[in-house]
């Protein structure tokens, strides 16, 4: 199983980015998936997740600005990030597993991470 994350980069505060994570080697539609992030010197935290049937969860810090979605035909999960803030700077990781595993930070599979840097 491989998860390939992409879409990170350097942007200015207020800009938007869309992260993508393509999964290969599993029946993607049957699994929950989500995005975690880890800022320098901080613990990894859940940004957003989506269940196999499309139910979503967002951390308070990103609610109203980030949107998670999935395209099961493409085995891909997306994270649309709008109104980016300097504090959104982090390495973003995608993960796949059961819903409880994803929410609990114990996803079965993890991507390699993509760096998002937001300049203030």
What does this 3D model show about the protein?
The N and C termini lie far apart (about 35 Å). Helices cover about 5% and strands about 50% of the residues. It is built from one helix and eleven strands. The strands form two sheets. Strands 2, 4, 5, 6, 9, 10 and 11 form a seven-stranded mixed β-sheet that branches. A four-stranded antiparallel β-sheet has the order 1-3-8-7, with no helix packed on it. By secondary structure, it is mainly beta.
Which SSEs are present, and which pair or pack?
Layout: E1 2-6, E2 9-12, E3 17-24, E4 32-38, E5 45-50, E6 56-58, E7 66-71, E8 76-81, E9 90-97, H1 99-103, E10 109-110, E11 114-119
Parallel strand pairs: 2-11
Antiparallel strand pairs: 1-3, 3-8, 4-5, 4-9, 5-6, 7-8, 9-10, 9-11
Q: What is the makeup of the main sheet?
A: 7 strands, mixed
The class by helix and strand makeup works out as mainly beta
Determine the mean pLDDT.
Answer: 97
The outline comes out as globular
Order of helices and strands: EEEEEEEEEHEE
Radius of gyration: 13 Å
E-strand count: 11
Percent helix among the residues?
Answer: under 10%
- Rounded to the nearest angstrom, the distance between the terminal CA atoms is 37 Å
- The proportion of residues in beta strands is over 45%
Number of H- or I-type helical stretches: 1
Low-confidence regions: none
